TrEMBL record:
Belongs to the nitronate monooxygenase family. NMO class I subfamily. Gene3D superfamilies: Aldolase class I (3.20.20.70). GO terms for molecular function: monooxygenase activity. Keywords: Detoxification, Flavoprotein, FMN, Monooxygenase, Oxidoreductase. This is Propionate 3-nitronate monooxygenase. It comes from Micromonospora musae.
C-alpha cells in the first residue's frame, strides 16, 4: 500500500505471522526505497508503478485545477496555479536498485513492464508478478513470461491496476476473475480485492488462487502507517459506502465516499500522475487537520472488518479457515 500505509514494521509483523509482505515503491524516491528495504530487514516483495505516457493536456488540467481551487484555500494552497507535473516515479533508478539489491519478488501495477526491466530482474534471481484486472491483461502479461499474476477484482481498495483506464474492461469481482485468469493462463494467481474475513480467503483459494492479497484489513493495525484521519474514517459509522473515483488522482481508485468525491467526480478528468501531484498537498493538509472530506480514504469493500491491534492477529484470523 503506497502513500505511507505499508511500513517496514508492518512488513516485519506480517512476515513473522506467516505471511509475505510487500514494500511499496510508489511515490518514493529511490533513496527512500533503499532505506525502507534496509529497515525492513526481512525477505519481502517490492511493488513498482509502471509509468505511462502523459494522459492530460494543459487546458484540461488547468480547468480542473481552477474547479477545485477553493478546497485548498483553508490551507493556504493555490491549486489554480499549481504546475502540471508528469513523472515516471524514478522507474529506471528503482529497477537499477532492485537489480543491485535483489528481493525475492517484484510486482508491477498500472501496466506491463518493459522486457528489458523484466530480464534484468530475472538475471538477479527475482520472481515477477503483474497486476491484472481482466483476462485480456492477464494474457498479455503471460506473454511476457512473468512468474505469476495478481488478479485484482473490482472490490479492491486503492488504485485499480487497470492497464489502460481509458479502455477498461467491465468490472469483475475477485472470485470469478481469479477462476478465469487461472483457466486462461495456467500461471500462479494471487487474489486481491474485497477480502473481509477467513471465509473469503478460503473461497478464493478454492477458486484457484495460489495466495490471497490483503491491504485494507491492515490499515488500522498497530504497525500500519495510515494517518489518524484515515484510520478513524474506516471505523466511522457515517461512512456507509465505498466508490470508485478519479477525483483525487486522475486514475480510478476505490475509497470511502466523501464530499470531495461528490463535488468533483463528474468533472474529474483522467490524468495520472498529474492530478495526484495537483491534490497531494491538499490531501496531506486535510489529513493533518483531521478533515476526512478532503482526503483520499482508500478502502476496499471489506473495510468494516478492519480492526485495531497487532497485524499478526489479522493474519491469524484470515488463515483460520484453511
Amino acid at each position: 500500500m503506497a502513500g505511507g500505509a505499508s511500513t517496514p514494521a508492518l512488513i516485519r509483523a506480517v512476515t513473522a505471522a506467516g505471511g509475505f509482505g510487500f514494500l511499496p515503491a510508489g511515490y518514493k524516491t529511490t533513496e527512500a526505497l533503499a532505506a525502507d528495504l534496509a529497515a525492513t530487514d526481512t525477505p519481502c516483495g517490492v511493488n513498482l508503478f509502471v509509468p505511462g505516457p502523459p494522459e492530460i493536456d494543459e487546458a484540461t488540467f488547468r480547468e480542473y485545477a481552477r474547479r477545485i481551487a477553493a478546497e485548498g484555500e483553508p490551507y493556504g494552497l493555490d491549486l489554480a496555479d499549481a504546475p502540471l507535473i508528469h513523472d515516471d516515479d524514478h522507474w529506471s533508478d528503482k529497477i537499477d536498485l532492485l537489480v543491485r539489491q535483489p528481493v525475492p519478488v517484484v510486482s508491477f501495477t498500472f501496466g506491463l513492464p518493459d522486457p528489458a526491466a523484466l530480464a534484468a530482474l530475472r538475471r538477479a534471481g527475482t520472481r515477477t508478478l503483474v497486476t491484472v484486472t481482466s483476462v485480456a491483461e492477464a494474457r498479455a502479461a503471460r506473454d511476457l513470461d512473468v512468474d505469476g499474476l495478481i488478479a485484482q477484482g473490482t472490490e479492491a481498495g486503492g488504485h485499480s491496476g487497470v492497464h489502460d483506464p481509458r479502455r477498461p474492461a467491465a468490472p469483475t469481482s475477485t472470485r470469478p476473475l481469479v477462476a478465469d485468469v487461472v483457466a486462461a493462463t495456467g500461471l500462479p494467481v494471487l487474489a486481491a480485492g474485497g477480502v473481509a474475513g477467513p471465509d473469503d480467503v478460503r473461497d478464493l483459494i478454492e477458486a484457484g488462487a495460489s495466495a490471497v492479497v490483503v491491504g485494507t484489513l491492515l490499515l488500522r493495525t498497530d504497525e500500519s502507517g495510515a494517518n489518524r484521519t484515515h484510520r478513524d474514517a474506516l471505523a466511522d459509522p457515517a461512512r456507509a459506502s465505498t466508490v470508485v473515483t478519479r477525483a483525487f488522482t486522475g486514475r480510478p481508485a476505490r475509497g470511502l465516499r466523501n464530499t470531495f468525491i461528490d463535488r468533483y467526480e463528474a468533472a474529474a478528468p483522467l490524468g495520472y500522475p498529474e492530478l495526484h501531484h495537483l491534490t497531494r498537498g491538499l490531501r496531506a493538509a486535510a489529513a493533518a487537520a483531521g478533515q476526512p472530506d478532503r482526503v483520499h480514504l482508500w478502502a476496499g469493500t471489506g473495510y468494516r472488518s478492519a480492526t485495531t491491534g497487532p497485524a499478526a492477529d489479522v493474519i491469524d484470523r484470515l488463515t483460520s479457515a484453511l
